[in-house]
Amino acid sequence: MTYDALLLVSFGGPEGPDDVLPFLRNVTRGRGVPDDRLTEVAEHYYHFGGVSPINAQCRALIAALRGELSVHNLHLPVYWGNRNWPPMLVEALQRMRADGIKRSLAFVTSAYGSYSSCRQYLDDIAAARAAVGVDAPIIDKIRHYFDHPGFITPFVEGVKAALPHMPSNTKLVFTSHSIPLSMNEVSGPAGARYTEQHAEVARIVAETAAPGVDYDLVWQSRSGPPESKWLEPDVNDHLALLAQGGTEGVIVVPIGFTSDHLEVIWDLDNEAAKTAEHLGMAFTRVATPGTHPAFVSMVRELIAERTQGAPAQHLGKIQTFDNTPDGCCPARRPPIPSR
Ligand SMILES: CC1=C(CCC(=O)O)c2cc3nc(cc4[nH]c(cc5[nH]c(cc1n2)c(C)c5CCC(=O)O)c(CCC(=O)O)c4C)C(CCC(=O)O)=C3C
Ligand SMILES: [Fe+2]
């Protein structure tokens, strides 16, 4: 297959205080997220002047990708469209159509399966194509890359660099975004793909970077009404449990995320770090891939998989698809049970 463009698809985030509430409404439209939760999350954004770092991180990734592609003599224009805040997917597809793009690969800033981390991106791409209408470019999403060396390596390096500075009784704490249990249950053809893929990443990073050091996989940033069941334990509760058991330090590894956006700089660097401080534990948070050269090269390698049949690189042992087949994760989001 040949492609004439690469489209970066991301979440989007507010770029000033006036953007915060409209952005939150875009994200949670029809989702049953209570107002209390929105007010609380708005405060997290206001703490940073209403600016999420995610758009700047996308711009940095695009700049790095353009460099990477041109160094390798790949003349593929790079476009950018977000799901929830400008530049929106629709505008990106309109620009692509105006530029004569017929068929593009899409790299999504989420490495895993599940409705929220994969299918929702596909749904939003499909909706944007429908909105653009006739001659909208065809978009093929690049596969889940959770166990690609380019995603794993930055976390491995981060853990290795942190370990010598930590107390002897230190544990690794892998974290990702919590999702409703109902969403995890229907994720992937056999269910629980989201948690399985994360467990595999935690295992690979731990065994490579810190053999013999205990580790756990926990969840953060849960949303929805308090009564509904989401993946647990929460990172803060887990830190309390570790402290009770005599753990003196934690290396928190945010494997759920590709860049240091708000879930990382607020929910971990602020909330979880404070929790650790109250508990008297040393705390280090490892960087996300961001624009790490291995991560940037990974995108080029994933393109080569699709265009030149380059062998798929997988460090993990679980079966994954090269691409998301139609049957994978429900095309309609499983409802968050409401109160
Ligand atoms: C799995 C997952 C990822 C990782 C995969 C991926 O990266 O896509 C992710 C990423 C992100 N989530 C983000 C922001 C938000 N997520 C929310 C709400 C929700 N997230 C969910 C899941 C995920 N979210 C779910 C099931 C909800 C409940 C509502 C719904 O069913 O949709 C809300 C509403 C308020 C709240 O309740 O927190 C906000 C503001 C940002 C931007 C950060 C920034 O601005 O820097 C990013 C990268
Ligand atoms: Fe989210």
- Tally of contiguous helical segments: 12
CATH topology annotation of the largest domain: Rossmann fold
Q: Level of helix content?
A: 40-55%
Shape: globular
Helix/sheet category: alpha/beta
Overall pLDDT confidence: 94
Strand % is 5-15%
Which sheet architecture does the biggest sheet show?
Answer: 4 strands, parallel
Taking Cα atoms only, what radius of gyration do you get, to the nearest Å? 20 Å
Give your account of this protein's structure.
This protein has 12 helices and 8 strands. With 339 residues, it is of the alpha/beta class. The strands form 2 sheets. Strands 2-1-3-4 form a 4-stranded parallel beta sheet, sandwiched between helices. A 4-stranded parallel beta sheet has the order 6-5-7-8, sandwiched between helices. Strand 3 (103-108), helix 5 (115-132) and strand 4 (138-141) form a beta-alpha-beta unit. Helix 6 (149-162) packs across helix 8 (193-209) and helix 9 (235-244) packs parallel to helix 11. The longest helix is centred in the N-terminal third of the chain and has 18 residues, at 54-71. The site of coproporphyrin III has 24 residues, from helix 1, helix 2, helix 5 and helix 10.
